[in-house]
Amino acid sequence: MQNRHKRKQQHELKRQNNKKSAETISNTKEEEPFPSHARPTPDECRAIRDSLLAFHGFPQEFARYRKQRPYLITLQDKEESSHLINNCDEKNDNGVKVEEEEEEEEEESVLDGLVKTVLSQNTTEVNSQRAFLNLKSAFPTWENVLAAESKFVENAIRCGGLAPTKAACIRNILSSLMEKKGRLCLEHLRDLSVAEIKAELSHFKGIGPKTVACVLMFNLQKDDFPVDTHVFEIAKAIGWVPPVADRNKSYLHLNHCIPKELKFDLNCLLYTHGKLCRKCTKKSGSQQRKETLHDSCPLLKYCDKLS
User: Fold this and answer.
1) What is the DSSP string of 85-119?
2) Which domain holds residue 169?
3) Where in the sequence numbering do the catalytic residues fall?
4) What is the rounded CA–CA span in Å between residue 56 and residue 166?
5) What pTM was estimated for this model as a whole?
6) Tally of domains within the chain
7) Among 61, 170, 226, 264, which is most exposed with the fewest C-beta within 10 angstroms?
8) How does DSSP classify residue 246?
9) Of 170, 193, 220, the domain-final residue
10) pLDDT tens profile 1-56
């Protein structure tokens, strides 16, 4: 009995030490890299959020995740912008009204969300979704994926590109989980602090800051702001980060400056806008662009301020 009590005390002490260590590492790594760069201001964030909502509508691909955040708008925002959110919830990114689904989708597990994010790297949304569906069809459980030969996992996700790399990453996550936790589940992350979550997920080989931030924002409902290529390009174009900023430092700076209640909507809208519009970043691309249907990009006036 005494031995069991002693082991319990040791386990609790170890958990507390790990928590302190994670917080120390997080605080060290996440200091504001550009303290003298005053942008974006809260007012700018709010104005761009509302401009992009009016221009695109809220992106339907993120609607299911938004429903898990019932209180996104602060009291001072409610009168001026809640009508935009409400009006856009039923529109796709072309402003076309869509019928509300009769049945609510089952909440996505944290592990499913992590694997989906891994599969989304360096490919299109359509291909990454197809790869995930193929994987779940071929292997109904994560235990099946872990037990399978790598070549079969690669075949299942090949349409998403980089199949050997992504298969190795997924299998490494699963094997590490089984070794450390004894089961293939990440739901325990819901009870941890952001610092602890980052520390745990970062231990997996191939999992970087953007992937961790996506899981935090979409699957754990934390107020985080992932910086992918689209968000990064726009942030540079409108002067929200200095010209010398890289993606990692942009992530730290934007998370420091953007109000928590605006992070989710603003991130989803900037990502969507970056895919559909090339005017504000002066990039060319083969994807159909939003400006072909509209006279101008709503962010151009912010870019003009830098000219």
Assistant:
1) HHHHTTB-TTS-B-PPPSSPPPPPPHHHHHHHHHH
2) 108-220
3) 210
4) 32
5) 0.81
6) 2
7) 61
8) -
9) 220
10) 555 555 455 545 545 555 544 444 444 457 899 999 999 999 999 999 999 999 99
